[in-house]
Amino acid sequence: MYVTARGIFRANLDGSDVETIVPSLPGPQDIALDVANSMIYWVDPQSDKIHRARMDGSRVEDLVTSGLSQPEGLTLDLQGRKMYWADALTRKIQRANLDGSGVEDIVTGLRRPYSVAFDSINRMIYWTDEGVGRIQRANPDGSSVETVVDRAGRGGRGPFGLVLEVTVQPRRQTFSDTLTSGGQGPEMVVIPAGTFRMGCLNDDGDCGSHGFPQEKPVHQVSIRSFALSKYEVTFDQWEECVSAGGCTHHPGDQGWGRGNRPVININWHDAQEYVAWLSAQTGEDYRLPSEAEWEYAARAGTETKYSWGNDLPSNLANCRSDCGDPFGHTASVGSFPANPWGLHDMHGNVWEWTEDCLHSDYNGAPTDGRAWTSRSCLRRAQDGVSLERVLRGGAYDYPAYGIRSAIRGSQGENDRRYLQNDGFRVARSLP
Ligand SMILES: [Ca+2]
Ligand SMILES: [Ca+2]
């Protein structure tokens, strides 16, 4: 739990281990958390400002510093990337982007607004108006205001604080298509449509210090709903394709075993044979994911280095040395917990081919989620002839910074060398 006094403090839910997170603030109030991105937001009605910091209290930022006259009741809409609050003296509800930009009045003419709460399922804002004893709600843009409880302040004062209980049905959809030759295709997860920021979002950390200019500039990308396989394609799945005559390559396993381990020693053309076979077997549009689709799915709504946060993993993924995992080479797929969208091994295990050609950075990259294949791809010097295609997610033989959501790798599409950490997962377009 997080609490305020003349600073921000936190403790375990049983009250133990009280620690100071942000000391010496004029009058912080109304903490809101963005847990997926490890951020804490609060208003300060004493100084008339809105701030945020990391959940450990580091990197305190001023988000809104002017035009406020007593902000209270801060709440976040994490999906819409907005924050909402009441301004008690100007008697209105306001909102802004999570970086503090785009401040706007959405409901005005209230008496004494106090608390604001956001229903992220039905996308409505609710607030209390202590001055008239009401609870009201409206659309996120402030339209269609309605009173849901009149005379809510039964004892003559209030209502004050407001919390919503909204039930989320877990609606993660998975499926597998039936193959005409018998059996089922890979288990697929439906990835929701959305918009995200792609690239080096943590420049103070590894993508800055290790110097990966190809992860910049950060750019916003909109993704249509699609399906992505829950796991990397395995040796077993590959061998089904070989037996059926759809795949011609017989990849070695480096002596580590086959079965449920991710298939390795696969170049980009090999992966294309597999998705073509799967499409023919199912009548559906199986393909490699675009690079943007891949990163969107790997981030799964997060803006941290990894889908679990910014910290080094402790047995959450298979990497070389600093992931705290027991695997020296590849691990059977699904050996680690899924990311928030139900996908396994997006970080590490094996690099995964995408449809995209490699460009030296993101200048000019598409913003609609399509694969970037325009302009001439970079060509790999060592084989001189094949286009350089993008691999994502890092592998068992990379350190933790090399399995970040933003990391980009590449290899010539025809290469047969250095493929012992290269595999793939499949995407499917949805109607
Ligand atoms: Ca390992
Ligand atoms: Ca992987």
Structure description:
It is elongated and about 80 Å long. The chain has four helices and 26 strands. The model has no long low-confidence stretch (mean pLDDT 91). The protein is 9% helix and 28% strand. A five-stranded antiparallel β-sheet has the order 16-17-20-26-21. The longest helix has 15 residues, at 268-282. One calcium ion (CA) binds next to loops.
At the first level of CATH, what is the class of the largest domain?
Alpha Beta
Bound molecules: calcium ion
Number of domains: 2
SSE sequence, one letter per element:
EEEEEEEEEEEEEEEEEEHEEHHEHEEEEE
CATH A-level architecture of the largest domain: Alpha-Beta Complex
Side by side, the strands of the main sheet go 16-17-20-26-21
Structural class: mainly beta
Shape: elongated
How far is the N terminus from the C terminus? 43 Å
Fraction in helix: under 10%
The profile of the biggest β sheet is:
5 strands, antiparallel
Strand content: 25-35%
- At the fold tier of CATH, the topology name of the largest domain is paralog of FGE (formylglycine-generating enzyme)
Mean pLDDT: 91
The number of strands is 26
The number of distinct helices, counting runs of at least 4 residues, comes to 4
This entry's quaternary arrangement is single chain
CATH superfamily of the largest domain: paralog of FGE (formylglycine-generating enzyme)
Cα gyration radius (Å): 25 Å
Uncertain residue ranges: none
Short description:
The chain is mostly beta strands. It contains four helices and 26 strands. The site of one calcium ion has 6 residues, from loops.
